[in-house]
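Private note to self, pasted from the team thread so I don't lose it. Backbone tokens:
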């Protein structure tokens, strides 16, 4: 059975969440920043098969070099031209994470290379910084940010998930384990305001 641990839990620095997903293929979804990710992975006793990025903002990738050095893993992400990305993931491609196959959804608006990962079989979504709990959504005032594009991406995500969705792991803040689809709907409504 797939288990998901946020190895950035309790860190008091500028970092994203970083999810260690254990199973047939142990994957770190985002590396976080400014904490000892290697020690936290080693403490979990899982090893690591790959590092998958939702996007390449510094708070999500600051620990990439140390994780790659320690575990000799490839880094997967949307943009094959980014210096940190070893293997490109296309929109709609299935990526093995834990025990499941996760469909990659290209969801720009917060950043051009942003991806979400959804498994209908596992009922899990890794949403990165596209959306957060309680209708929060990724900021669009940074380079490559664009509010109308973000709204389109939230709509795409909402069309892509189904009623099997039981948990949503976001880039910042708490996981959503009660009616996550409703939180996506709220984010879509909130993001449309003030467009």
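Design output:
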């Amino acid at each position: 059975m797939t288990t998901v641990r946020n190895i950035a839990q309790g860190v008091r620095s500028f970092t994203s969440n970083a999810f260690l997903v254990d199973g047939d293929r142990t994957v770190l979804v985002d590396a976080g920043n400014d904490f000892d990710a290697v020690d936290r992975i080693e403490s979990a006793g899982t090893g690591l098969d790959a590092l998958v990025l939702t996007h390449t903002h510094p708070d999500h990738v600051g620990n990439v070099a140390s994780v790659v050095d320690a575990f000799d893993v490839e880094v997967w992400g949307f943009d094959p031209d980014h210096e940190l990305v070893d293997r490109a993931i296309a929109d709609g491609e299935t990526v093995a994470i834990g025990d499941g196959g996760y469909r990659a959804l290209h969801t720009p608006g917060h950043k051009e290379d942003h991806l979400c990962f959804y498994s209908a079989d596992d009922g899990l979504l890794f949403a990165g910084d596209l959306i957060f709990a309680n209708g929060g959504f990724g900021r669009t005032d940074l380079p490559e940010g664009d509010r109308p594009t973000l709204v389109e991406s939230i709509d795409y995500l909402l069309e892509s998930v189904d009623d099997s969705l039981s948990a949503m792991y976001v880039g910042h803040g708490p996981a959503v384990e009660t009616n996550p689809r409703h939180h996506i709907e709220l984010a879509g409504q909130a993001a449309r305001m003030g467009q």
